[in-house]
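ok trying again, last paste got cut off:
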Amino acid sequence: MQEFIRKFVIEELDHDFGEIPLSALDDAAIVDGIAFTTDSYTVKPLFFPGGDIGVLSVAGTVNDICVMGAKPLALSCAMIIEEGFSEEDLQRIVKSISLTAKSADVRIVTGDTKVVENGAADGLFINTSGIGRRSDHLDHNIQMVRRSREFKPNWPNDSSVGPGDTIIASGSIGNHGIALLSFREGYGFDTVVHSDAKPLNSLIEDALKIGGITAMKDPTRGGVANLLNEWAEKSHVGIKISEEALPIDDEVLTACEMLGIDPLEIGNEGKVLMAVVPSMADEVLSTIRSRPEGRNAAIIGEVSKEFSGVMMETHTGGKRVVEPPVGDPVPRIC
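nice, full thing came through this time. structure:
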């Protein structure tokens, strides 16, 4: 995907416009102090344990705004609907969009609808775009970072991770991808795994109030492995994580072992990873854990200048390189 974007998108478009431009390949652009992002959702099936395409379409865009240190304000919603699509299902999805937007304190302010012939859209595709303004707590957050080290950026981003930073995961990883895969393929696991899809703006706002966060990102496509490799490459650092510290629910780990899937490569829709200066890490972690959606949060690693890439200390005491995924082990999950 990264190679595709660089070859077919970056080379052809005006990619250096804005404070955080297209060429940065962050979760959102920053233009004149406004965070702006867009995303399309082609999840299959449309309804799954723990959510549906409506929840995803709002949560995914809200999260891409707030990991940039912005407060989401408004969304657009465009629907591509297959001819003959169930009115009952459509009403159910639109209700999910409404309820999820209200829970995130954002509003749907514009949109579009197109109808296509049978077989062209697997029922329904959704595109959402979002805008947000700088969080009221972002200046304090950056001030706390600058007490620990030199920090030039005015926004947290993929290129601002620094040596010594502590890596925090806001909760158990892999749930969304395994929920989709097991439900879609009919695997009969003993326990039903539910998607973690939800907006994270309130959790992130609470963390910014504490401060010390240098970068944030939600581990969606490509999972934690892809996220950490993006940070390592863009920030020119090495990241060491501990397999023992990774928060993974037992049922997700069992499913991954049965299916031969690396949980680090599975997409999530309700988790965020944060890089935090070490002096603030424990307080940020405690704040995240105080929220229901962050009760399984954990410190999973640290940033180093002594090597490049991502390395994991295994359960047995060995070390292995965590490569960026070469493909998507669970397609069509968002």
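cool. Residues 277 and 316 are 28 Å apart (CA to CA). The chain has nine helices and 14 strands.
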